[in-house]
Amino acid sequence: MGWLANAFTWWNGASWGTSIVTRRHGEEVGRDDHGNIYFRHRDDPKRRWVIYDGSNDSSRVPPGWNAWLRGTIEELPSRALPPRRTFEQEPQPNLTGTTAAYRPGGSMAGADARPLSTGDYEAWKPE
After folding, report:
1. What is the Cα–Cα distance from 92 to 34, expressed in whole angstroms?
2. Cα 11 vs. chain centroid, distance in angstroms?
3. CA gap 35, 66 in Å, rounded
4. Beta partners for 38?
5. Using CA of residue 78, residue 81, residue 84, residue 85, what is the dihedral sign?
6. pTM of this prediction?
7. Domain ranges, residue 54
8. 126 lies in a domain?
9. Which of 71, 65, 69, 110 has its CA nearest to residue 91?
10. Are 42 and 51 in contact (CB under 8 A)?
11. Is position 20 within any domain?
């Protein structure tokens, strides 16, 4: 079922169209720790793309590779960027929609209780 799902979807890896274009015109330039594979066009190196290992979520692209994909840096991240410093934290993926997402105080899904009404609010009641 895995290959059939990729025939009609784009959110869980490369679609058939992307795979064909990548095979015909792409040149692999690197891989990251998450298993994502990065490509550039053989004839036009400014055209760059990534094939995700799993769901297509751009927050899973490390900052250095993100800079390369957007053309902010021309060289590959391993050559263009300094090594990671000891105080730098690992980048986190987008946590929206997960139990680890940020919940502000008073949020219905947050740990804190909402403050009680101050008395200047009158709830709407249907007639």
Report:
1. 12
2. 11
3. 15
4. 30, 50
5. positive
6. 0.69
7. 26-81
8. no
9. 65
10. no
11. no
